[in-house]
TrEMBL record:
One of its GO terms (biological process) is nucleotide-sugar metabolic process. Belongs to the NAD(P)-dependent epimerase/dehydratase family. dTDP-glucose dehydratase subfamily. Coiled coil: none annotated. This is dTDP-glucose 4,6-dehydratase. It comes from Ureibacillus chungkukjangi. Residues 7-310 form the NAD(P)-binding domain. Its EC number is 4.2.1.46. It comes from the Bacteria. It holds the Pfam family GDP_Man_Dehyd. Keywords: Lyase, NAD.
Length: 332
């Protein structure tokens, strides 16, 4: 039986990079192709340990280049496509929305055209719970797969549009697919512009930690390893055409997250600096992952265990994050 060929777009980024590691180790009989444009948030340093593995391959390309995507798919004839590649930082989408529309919408369409042309076995589109909009501070309210789509930022609007395009290719052309919508991720190799790594590194260096508004916005946190196992489950067992929410049952306010990290590092809360709230800042996200759990998936990490391991990971991997702090992209 020939090896399965698996394309992971955005495999030099945070979630995609962790998924590449997971798949290379979990499925030695699969050939894993990491396709990435290597923009500011992507790096190959995270893949040093696997770069010589026989089942790991890197392709430097931009998903927006439709002709290149079609040529690549025709040459390699991928069996599975896991589409992580996206511009994903909400603040950047407010400042430069056109980039998000180009990459997240047109890039997705280019991949869909290529996938349809060669007849892939499944296209898994990695999306976000932010497409649902926001919830009130009522613990009984959760996002389900039937929650209406109501994005509030240029980022989430671009992801919602790409979700609809993927669904349209399934319903119109019969492309086998799943869409996953995850809650906020954290863990190793997360670019230090996001809340958790920014807080860890700022606290470690005893620099001020910016917190939007009053810090009471709520997010449902998911360790990236649990996200990887969930996508694996959906890739192999998900019902064709279905959407699956992925959440870790770990709701926390932003200020609780920051204080947990400060406590873990034995740093004072006086490092916290409340700043003007983000434009259109959603109040609360919370995922109901029941549908996915019915496939047999359960998260491994509690928030407390996951945060402790994540803090220790950053403390032990200065060679990865220190060069990033020298770049102009990180306002630390």
């Amino acid at each position: 039986m020939p090896k399965k060929k698996v394309l992971v777009t955005g495999g030099a980024g945070f979630i995609g990079g962790n998924f590449v590691h997971y798949m290379v180790n979990q499925y030695p009989d699969y050939d894993i192709y990491n396709l990435d444009a290597l923009t500011y948030a992507g790096d190959l340093l995270k893949h040093r340990a696997i770069k010589h593995n026989e089942n790991y391959h890197f392709i430097h390309a931009d998903i927006v280049d439709r002709a290149k995507m079609i040529s690549l798919f025709e040459r390699e004839r991928f069996d599975f496509v896991l589409h992580f590649a996206a511009e994903s930082h909400v603040d950047r989408s407010i400042n430069e929305p056109s980039l998000f529309l180009q990459t997240n919408i047109m890039g997705t369409q280019a991949l869909l055209d290529a996938a349809l042309k060669v007849g892939v076995e499944k296209f898994v589109h990695i999306s976000t719970d932010e497409v649902y909009g926001e919830l009130d501070f009522d613990a009984t309210l959760l996002f389900s797969e039937s929650t209406p789509i109501q994005p509030n930022s240029p980022y989430s609007a671009s992801k919602a549009a790409s979700d609809f395009i993927v669904q349209a290719y399934h319903r119109t052309f019969g492309l086998p697919m799943n869409i996953t919508r995850c809650s906020n991720n954290y863990g190793p190799y997360q670019y230090p512009e996001k809340l958790i790594p920014l807080t860890i590194l700022s606290a470690y260096q005893e620099k001020s930690i910016p917190v939007y508004g009053n810090g009471c916005n709520v997010r449902d946190w998911l360790h990236v390893y649990d996200h990887c196992t969930a996508i694996d489950k959906i890739l192999h067992e998900g019902v064709n055409g279905d959407v699956y929410n992925i959440g870790g049952h770990n709701e926390r306010t932003n200020i609780e997250v920051v204080k947990t990290i400060l406590s873990s590092l034995s740093k004072p809360e006086t490092l916290i600096e409340f700043v003007e709230d983000r434009l259109g800042h959603d109040k609360r996200y919370a995922i109901d992952p029941t549908k996915l759990e019915q496939l047999g998936w359960t998260p491994k990490y509690s928030f407390e265990k996951g945060i402790e391991e994540t803090v220790q990971w950053y403390l032990c991997h200065r060679e990865w994050w220190e060069p990033l702090l020298l770049e102009k992209h990180i306002q630390n």
